[in-house]
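In response to reviewer comment 3 from the previous cycle, which asked for concrete evidence that the modeling workflow produces usable outputs, we include below a single protein chain processed end to end. The sequence was submitted unchanged, and the resulting structure tokens are shown without manual editing.
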Amino acid sequence: DASMQLGWQLLADLPRSELTRLSDAQIAAHLGGAAAAALTAAGAAAAGAPAAAVAAADAPAGPAR
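The workflow returned the following structure tokens.
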């Protein structure tokens, strides 16, 4: 269990766009609300949203909780 916690903490520092093998549900469950919000922004960017949404999606989340 400690290994999994460490793994999720390390993944929290990566840009959300790099977490291609994780589902939105896994990211939301293990990386928290900020990660889910970043995914939403990334989806909006893919749909043609302003560049600010893209920057928000690539910003690192705060410390893992």
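The helical segments are 2-12, 24-31, 33-46, 51-58. We consider this sufficient to address the reviewer's concern, and the full set will be provided in the supplementary archive.
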